[in-house]
Amino acid sequence: MKKIIIGSIIILLLTSCVRESVFTTPVITISEPDEVIELSVERIQTDHMYSEFFAVYDTILISARPNDTDYNFYVSSIKNNKLLGSYMRHGQGPKEYIGLNPIYRIDVKGEDLTALTYAPHKRQLIEWNITQSIKTGKDSLLLLGDYAEPNEYDLTYARMYKIGKSRYLGYTTGFFPYGSPRMLLPTYWILDGQDTIAPVNGISVVKDMIYNEESVVSASDFFSSAWELRPDNSKVFSAMTWLKQVNIIDLNDNSVRSYRVDGSPDERIFKTNMEGVVLQYCSVVCDNDHIYALYSGEHTSAFKDNMGYRWIHEFDWNGNFIRKYHLSVPLFFLYMDPATGTVYGYNYDDDNVIYKIIQPSYSDKGDAKDIL
After folding, report:
1. Phi, psi (5° rounding) for residue 11?
2. Do the Cβ atoms of 58 and 356 come closer than 8 Å?
3. Would 198 disulfide with which of 35, 131, 148, 202, CB 3.0-4.6 Å?
């Protein structure tokens, strides 16, 4: 009888813990490596870098210029600093765009480089043939279709990827609609369709939002994260802004696995005033084997002095914390070149400058190998 009572108490406690959690799956605690590896950077000389929204493929640099009055994208060579062309004119005409989503991934289609973007005001999803644009000097665009919103609040997707023949991945951030008791969870949407691309399934890391009028951080931002899609389109890795926690979403079975570094605060911090909280992750890049997350670890009050994040944490797709690196220059955004695996970073304090992160050698059981 005593064993039954004790067992019942344990089950009750475990059930209570699960019910109290706002996450869709139990959070697993992981340990942080002790060793710190120093990384240096190489400044890339270019006159055609216009914002932190950039992409690189081998020697091709694409820089988005969201507030530009002329064009949305500028393509140049980082090999000889030559401007190769300006594309997708800003404006309200039939062949102009008020705004376009930045380029988050460059793909190879046949012998051409392509990238996905979309026009929120036109509700159009567009495939841009970069190679043909450079050859002809004109926009080379393929309209994939009109996309449908996943909610009634006219909110667009923060990012979209093509993950199949007529299958797409879109993301919407968390949101508290004004005057409405409903809340929108940060959600990864699977979309399908040819002419109209509509959401067919949504996956969220959290099952409940938290509202706190006393917090200096907006409640809609509590569960914000930096994230990236695995190149084989099978999984998403997200690293959270306010928790030292990472999440892996499997798009094949819609499962979520969450991992929190030992010593990290938990979701109870969202019930405080959030003043002087620690900034955690800001940007994520990955290939099919490695994940690199840009990390701060500093209080928000120190950001104006640091002007960037000085750490990179390496994870694998099983949620293991592999290595941690310290940067010689603070960075604000990362991008991985899919052609070479080179990681680039954007320096927030300097005026539109990117850096190539130097690949050091690391000895593992006597074998030297590149780790970035």
Report:
1. -60, -40
2. no
3. 148
